[in-house]
Amino acid sequence: MAIEIKDLTKRSVNYSQWYNDLVIKADLAEQSAVRGCMVIKPYGYAIWEKMQRQLDDMFKATGVQNAYFPLLIPKSFLSREAEHVEGFAKECAVVTHHRLMNAPDGSGVVVDPEARLEEELIIRPTSETIIWNTYRNWISSYRDLPLLINQWANVMRWEMRTRMFLRTAEFLWQEGHTAHATKEEAQAEAIQMLNVYADFAEKYMAVPVVKGVKSANERFAGALETYTIEAMMQDGKALQSGTSHFLGQNFAKAFDVKFVNNENKLEYVWATSWGVSTRLMGALIMTHSDDNGLVLPPKLAPIQVVIVPIYKNQEQLDEINAKVNPIVENLRAMGISVKYDNADNKRPGFKFADYELKGVPVRLVLGARDIANGTIEVMRRDTLEKSSTSLEGIEETVKNLLDEIQDNIYKKALDFRNEMTYKVDTYEEFKQQIEKGGFVLAPWDGTPETEDRIKEETKATIRCIPLDAQPEDGVDMLTGKPSKCRVIFARNY
Question: What's the fold here for domain 27-93+126-288?
Fold first, then answer.
């Protein structure tokens, strides 16, 4: 049962609390018995499934195939790529024993001290090591390349401060791992997958993103280059929403993955990895939703249209049912997901509030008087506007309205991002703008030391160097050293 939305904290009062309230009250997820882990509830999982299905189709259109690799990784594998292990060492959960036993005092079960593993196993924080160890068996010739593999899986990263969907100890994601004959092919793959992520974010999630490359400080552990899509949330903070990594030959060398090229010479393969996670759910919520609850883009809404009847007696309900049933069939035939809620255990007002809270894009309301007038009430969730329209051709009206809502919420998010993007040249200006939130475009001298100092003093990080950044001879706002272009700074999740 939905919880009354009057209990939803307003964004202007406490944005963080509003987010937490909304995740719970819209039935997306809840905390679990395991600290830092969440239970994704059916409505939340239905949104993730739609994301997954669409992304999977987009990956496969580029030639990618799905596979599955083990959850547990031998500890020794993580030692083979020094930067990689250093990047993840503090987040790893370690399996040390393989058996439990009854406690001698009868108090329950304890770890059997005789069952210690010869080598500890790591619950995967990411799968580069186990996958590249496997690829050594799959790759021997240039004819085996490119190898384009993705897996949908769960991973574990021991997080101290967690927030549902945005940062949890266990989360769901996909991770692509590809092997190539040349550096150029691998770099092209990393950029191609970044573009897939950006297309998905903008065309399906209705979330505008900036495509860019990470600074060395923010780069994935073990990568030569990390590409990112960065989105802006309604509180002006940035959210890294997907990354694609050019790994060079680091993992191929660590796991001795070589191939005979077309000149009959032996060389190491070139690699990429790329992933998005259930963090996208957080991006979806925080980009579009309002004080009444979720606002979902129609392309990802589990229920795109809900129809609620208004009636006084069974006779009126029978008349409405007869009118609505063919509409439901026609909408479904058009590929639109629709729910006809004629259950009599909840009042219409409760249903309205519940479907608003859950972000259903279009609500249709039909009563006996509407049937007599040949009209139906339509409400769109993005603007909360109601109108009365003709019952005749309502299916086409709904189809067009869903497209309009998808476009409108993207435009609204884009306009907000544009309003919250600033150019600065001095450090004083920078500090003032960072306090307001948003993306701040500032000249940077390219050194990790400068980036570290800015982060320490302002809590802002370089989100990315935009791929479309124009060369610009300037000076760093902090050091006065030469700068070649502007980078995006922001506070982030």
Answer: BirA Bifunctional Protein; domain 2 (3.30.930)
CATH 3.30.565.10 corresponds to the domain 421-490: no
- Over the range 417-444, which residues count as b (16 or more CB within 10 Å of their CB) and which as e? beebbbebeebeebbebbeebbbbbbbb
**pLDDT tier at 3 (50, 70, 90 boundaries)?**
very low
* Paired tokens of 204: 């399906």
Residues 298-416: name the CATH superfamily.
Answer: Anticodon-binding domain (3.40.50.800)
- Is the pLDDT at 145 greater than 90? The verdict is yes
One-letter amino acid for residue 330 of the chain: N
What angle, 0 to 180 degrees and rounded to 10, lies between the N-to-C axes of helices 279-288 and 394-419? 90
Distance CA 187, CA 184 (A): 5
Task: Please give the Cα distance from 193 to 206 (Å, whole number).
Answer: 18
* Count of C-beta atoms within a 10 Å radius of residue 475: 13
Query: Where are the strands (E) in 299-414, listed by range?
Result: 305-310, 338-340, 362-367, 375-380, 386-390
Give this prediction's pTM: 0.95
- Candidates 281, 259, 284, 283; CA nearest to 270 is 259
Domain boundaries, the chain: 27-93+126-288, 298-416, 421-490
Q: Which two tokens stand for residue 307?
A: 């129809």
Report the C-alpha gap between 214 and 207 in whole angstroms.
20
Among residues 357, 381, 333, 331, the alpha carbon closest in space to that of 4 is found at: 357
> CA quadruple 403, 409, 415, 417: dihedral positive or negative?
negative
Q: Residue 153 is which amino acid?
A: A
**Helices marked H in 173-260 — which ranges?**
183-203, 250-254
Per residue in 252-261, pLDDT (tens digit) is 999 999 999 9
pLDDT in tens, 434-492: 999 999 999 999 999 999 999 999 999 999 999 999 899 999 999 999 999 999 999 99
- Sheet containing 270-277: which strands, arranged edge to edge? 65-66, 147-156, 170-180, 270-277, 238-248, 225-232, 210-213, 461-466, 486-490, 439-443, 421-423
